[in-house]
């Protein structure tokens, strides 16, 4: 967490958030299962996952969304998040390195509110997109 | 199988949850967010918040952590409606698989440790599409969470589930 508040005037369309990079492990999936209550065995039981035809256990979609959202709030602050919406495109697998890509696509004003729209993507090292979506944040203004 | 569009708009009932500090810290670690703001009230205060906020996807797990039995709203006499039992169950009985298609959270204010929220779910949409000769059924459940004390809306989640035949 940078700690410094991002101001509306500090963001230009095209600016990108610092990238968060995370190599996914089976332990990460176990931790997320416990923290979310999602004990679908496909995410933690390798024996059952492979018996079901999967190459291995795979990550929870909501874990991917959580990692991606964290890149947004690290950059813009937690208090300003107004909306985040994602589509789940591909599964994540232990051993993959996932990277976030958060880009400002628009700046707009709604009355006194200063809003920035963001495109958000979580992808692996090969560029395969796992989660794709948008977010809108409200930022403080110096004016 | 044609979906029953008359189910759209039916309420899935009300729940009350408490947001607590421990679960928020554990959840932040699980989504690989190391920010002190989710763990230390001093960091939250520095950020101008009255209490520790929750990570953006935490509303998805609020019921798991904070739906305590003694605080639940009294049943209002109407039949509780479960879209999972009424729609997804029958579809899965004929095979296929379910996928989490999309997820959205829309915030009026940050969810904070100490919040007591009441959520009411509704089946917001239900439709079918043919894709490569297979029927895909889309179900959207919207949950509107309000501050129990003030009644003010806090966060809305939209959960889009797909059944693929």
Structure description:
The complex is a heterodimer of chains A (143) and B (165). Chain A has helices at residues 26-36, 46-51, 61-76, and strands at residues 21-23, 81-88, 97-110, 113-124, 129-138. Chain A is elongated and about 60 Å long. Chain A has 143 residues and is an alpha+beta fold. Chain A has a domain at 12-24 and 59-138: Roll (Thiol Ester Dehydrase, Chain A). The two termini of chain A are 25 Å apart. In chain A, 23% of the residues lie in helices and 33% in strands. The longest helix of chain B has 11 residues, at 83-93. Chain B has one domain: Hotdog Thioesterase (Thiol Ester Dehydrase, Chain A, Roll), CATH 3.10.129. Chain B has 4 helices and 5 strands, in the order E-H-H-H-H-E-E-E-E. In chain B, a hairpin with a 5-residue loop joins strand 4 and strand 5. The chains are: A alpha+beta (143), B alpha+beta (165). Chains A and B meet through helix 1, helix 3 and strand 2 of A and helix 1 and strand 2 of B.
Q: Percent helix among the residues of chain B? A: 10-25%
Low-pLDDT residue intervals, each spanning 5 or more residues of chain A = none
- Number of beta-strand segments of chain B: 5
Distance between the termini of chain A: 25 Å
CATH superfamily of chain B: Hotdog Thioesterase
**Proportion of residues in helical segments of chain A:** 10-25%
The sequence of SSEs of chain A as H and E is EHHHEEEE
- The number of strands of chain A is 5
The largest sheet of chain A has its strands arranged as 1-3-4-5-2
Q: Cα-atom Rg of chain B, whole angstroms?
A: 18 Å
Task: Could you tell me the CATH topology label of one domain in chain A.
Answer: Thiol Ester Dehydrase, Chain A
Shape assignment of chain B: globular
Q: Which structural class best describes the helix and strand composition of chain B? A: alpha+beta
